[in-house]
Design a protein that fits this description.
The protein folds into two domains: 1-161, 2-Layer Sandwich (Alpha-Beta Plaits), CATH 3.30.70; 177-280, no CATH class. 31% of the residues lie in helices and 22% in strands. It has helices spanning 32-47, 50-57, 126-142, 165-175, 193-201, 250-261, 266-279, and strands at residues 4-10, 59-63, 71-72, 76-82, 89-92, 103-106, 112-119, 156-157, 181-185, 226-233, 236-244. Helix 1 packs across helix 3 (126-142) and helix 6 (250-261) packs antiparallel against helix 7 (266-279). The longest helix has 17 residues, at 126-142.
Length: 280
């Protein structure tokens, strides 16, 4: 396997943390395990093969060969390096809630990192290499990392990212081919990442929908199947909606967007304009 090397830059404030997450002690920290978790999510979303995923990234249920059987270790080393020292900034955690949304230390936009995927001991086949590269590229184009990643925080870009909306969506379609994920750029440009994260988080409460809401909920804890990420075109920020259709029918998303669009929430209007592309 040829090591997979990518460099990326945060577009929006990122909230990845270690064990100490309280504001008094917390320092944002982008670590390899956080990225590895994201890569595993994307592998599952793109290929849906848990056994193959565990064989690459390690798995408790995969017994390794040899005289000492046990959990199979990862065949890939994930390394992340900050390319320029950045001072954490205290910023709005949930801007749409005003002062009630609190503040938290974050990795600031503009911070650059180098990501390396390196093989460990055993051979990585050409097919595995190709899938790993697709996973990494999908995460860098459509993914994020850290808290509030589903609502605009922790978004990234690369130096060779598509420069136009049309090219971006074409690249997304290629990466998501033969999957149940869909992506669409929302028709709004933002001058600041705070304004982008404000709209990304400004949803109705879960009780405005039925139990099958695709937008997630805090109580009971339920992750959103609609993820809002950041991208940049012509020097301005945009939201990208990613619909994970593996667990709910597209009709559920369409109905939820209709409910949201009938209330004075900008995000509802923006999603309504791309609903057909997300639900196709």
């Amino acid at each position: 396997m040829t090591p997979i090397i990518r460099e990326f830059t945060f577009l929006t404030a990122a909230f990845p943390h270690g064990a100490y997450q309280s504001q008094g002690a917390n320092q944002p920290d982008l670590r390899a395990p956080s990225i590895k978790g994201q890569l595993r999510w994307w592998y599952d979303a793109l290929f849906g093969n848990k056994a193959a995923e565990d064989h690459l990234f390690g798995g408790l249920k995969n017994a390794k060969d040899g005289a000492k059987p046990g959990p199979e270790s990862s065949r890939i080393m994930v390394r992340v390096q900050e390319l320029a020292q950045a001072t954490p900034v205290k910023t709005h955690f949930m801007p749409h809630k005003g002062q009630g949304g609190g503040e938290k230390n974050a990795i600031p936009p503009g911070t650059r990192y180098k990501l390396s995927l390196i093989p460990r001991r055993t051979c990585i086949t050409p097919d595995e290499q190709a899938k790993l590269e697709r996973v990494v590229d999908a995460w860098l184009l459509l993914g994020a990392v850290g808290q509030r990643a589903n609502r605009g925080a922790g978004g990234m870009t690369t130096d060779d990212a598509p420069a136009t909306v049309a090219d971006y969506e074409a690249r997304a379609r290629t990466l998501l081919l033969d999957t149940k994920l869909r992506a669409a750029v929302l028709p709004e440009a933002y001058d600041t990442e705070k304004a982008l994260r404000f709209d990304a988080g400004d949803f109705l409460a879960a009780d405005a929908f039925d139990q099958s809401t695709p937008f997630g909920s805090a109580i009971p804890r339920k992750p959103s199947l609609l993820k809002l990420r950041a991208a940049r075109f012509d020097g301005t920020l945009h939201l990208v909606a990613i619909w994970d259709g593996r667990f709910q029918a597209a009709g559920t998303l369409r109905q939820a967007i209709t409910i949201l669009a009938n209330h004075p929430k900008k995000i509802g209007r923006l999603l309504a304009e791309v609903a057909e592309r997300l639900c196709s």
